[in-house]
Design goal:
Four Helix Bundle (Hemerythrin (Met), subunit A); 0% strand; 77% helix; mainly alpha; 254 residues; 8 helices; globular
Amino acid sequence: EPGRGLGPCSGRSMLAWLVGAAQVVGVACVVLSGVWMGHYRGGFAWDGSAHQFNLHPLCMVLGLVFLYGDAVLVYRVFPNEQRRSVKLLHAGIHLLALVISIVGMVAVFDFHRAQKIPDMYSLHSWCGMTTFILFCLQWVMGLGFFLFPGASSWLRAWYLPLHVFWGVALLALAVGSSLLGITEKLLFSIMSSYPLFDQEGVLANGLGLLLLAFGLLVGFVLSREEFRRPPHPEEEALSVHFKTLTEGGSPCTP
């Protein structure tokens, strides 16, 4: 439509570049997390030592940030594929992100228990646990309302705007919690050398900037109207039901 953003070809081309950039940045986040924990912090293990803790940041960056960001992008990346196939892919990537995040959560709590370190006292832990719980709820609610049959159109219409909102909000929460965790880890590990531009500190700061860039790229793609999936009859029906809920009247009323 003239005057309403980019044309179809230029819009898809820009989307491809933005999604490609997000993938490069996201992979770089995971790689830097691995290098930080593997090289500077001694590697990985499951033995209650600090090496077990190292699994926590790697798993959370991989699961709650990178894979979760990819999960929310699938409706933009595959606009013409069958909707149920895209739904299954969306739910499947979410599930993989959830499993990896659970491994990361178990790793840190098990490490704390082995080292007799208190749990859940820092702002990072509060924000991170809030994000993780909301992520679990988002996956379960999405599964129940949109993937499995049974939920009425009325309920799906009521929940759809919430699902969309929390999809974006959770990525912001995950990135924010990661930034808090990076700062906390640096202060615990290299507090004396951090102000001297220690190599580990510079690498971790770079990781933080890349996480922020990934969140901004995904958020920008999600915010652009021209990148949205073409309307589907089910979505149009839900829009009618939602309008009925918010404005009153009958679904048949214009």
